[in-house]
Amino acid sequence: MTMKDIQNERDYRNIPIDNVGIKNLRYPITVLDRRNSRQHTVASINMYVDLPHKNKGTHMSRFVEILHLFRPEISLKKIAVVLDKMKTHLNAASAHIEVTFPYFIEKQAPVSHSPALMDYTCRFLGNNNKEGRLDLVSEVIVPISSVCPCSKEISDGGAHNQRGEVHLSTRFKRFIWIEDMIELVEESASCEVYSVLKRVDEKHVTEKGFANPKFVEDIVRDIAQKIKNDNNITWFSVSAENFESIHNHSAYACITSEQ
Question: Where do the structural domains in the chain lie, given as residue ranges?
Fold first, then answer.
């Protein structure tokens, strides 16, 4: 029995589509772990290709079939190969993939050294355009703590502080560890965020943050300054958002380098 393939029929509206595909596919992946070699996690994956004006639709099932070919090794090193497969199997001129996943690092509390897992949201972004140019971006989202320099300066006692979030995206010449990107951000905050803190640790992080007040402007500038001294990183975008404790809004700053 021959089944009609609607997707392969001609579309007469003559309008091309930039991106068509699947979103929010949950899939097990394996990523490189600096300490433990590999880490298994579950990603949310978006996969798109372009669609010419003459084609009615794409074959959605092929996206999942391509992922299954590489299961579970959907790592940054494999993104280029996955993109090539997408273009070939879907007869596309360009392909795009976004892989978002939680990444876990064991961190010890600063004084008691009590261990616990910290989770960070990470993303791999890959694009293979119509000219065959490959573009890979690695992104981390890192929770941080900040103390307001202005509040500390004008207050008779104390200063307001808050938890914030830094997004750091990079392009690079050679492989860069997720852990290196996270550490770069945490070193630039007033203080790191931990999963577990004993009383001695809480005293430590409170005093460390108070001694190291930073605006969001300070945080992104400090990160940018460090990255500019790293010849391996060819492009970056860094943003910081503080979820203000005394305002009904967030504070935000962003720096993006030239291509």
Answer: 12-98, 133-259
Distance between CA atoms of 71 and 252, rounded to whole angstroms?
38
Residue with tokens 């999963």: 195
Cα 103 to Cα 187: distance, rounded to the nearest angstrom: 19
Alpha-carbon separation of residue 164 from 87, 142, 167, 187 (angstroms): 39, 8, 10, 14
The whole-angstrom separation of Cα 137 and Cα 96 is 12
Q: What is the distance between the alpha carbons of residues 187 and 222, in angstroms, rounded to a whole number? A: 9
CA nearest neighbour of 52 among 6, 90, 4, 85: 90
215: Cβ contacts below 8 Å, ≥ 6 apart: 146, 148, 149, 150, 251, 253
Query: What pLDDT shows up at residue 100?
Result: 97
pLDDT at 78: 84
In the numeric block, which tokens belong to residue 76? 């940054």
Helix axis angle, 216-228 to 178-186, nearest 10°: 130
**Tens digits of residue pLDDT in 150-191:** 999 999 988 999 999 999 999 999 889 999 999 999 999 999
Q: How confident is the model at residue 72 (pLDDT cuts 50, 70, 90)?
A: low
Q: Give the contacts of 255 (CB within 8 A, at least 6 positions apart).
A: 220, 221, 223, 224, 236, 237, 238, 239
| Cα(125)–Cα(206) distance, integer angstroms | 36
Q: Look up the CATH architecture of domain 133-259.
A: Roll (3.10)
| Residue type at position 37 | S
User: Is the pLDDT assigned to residue 9 strictly greater than 90?
Assistant: no
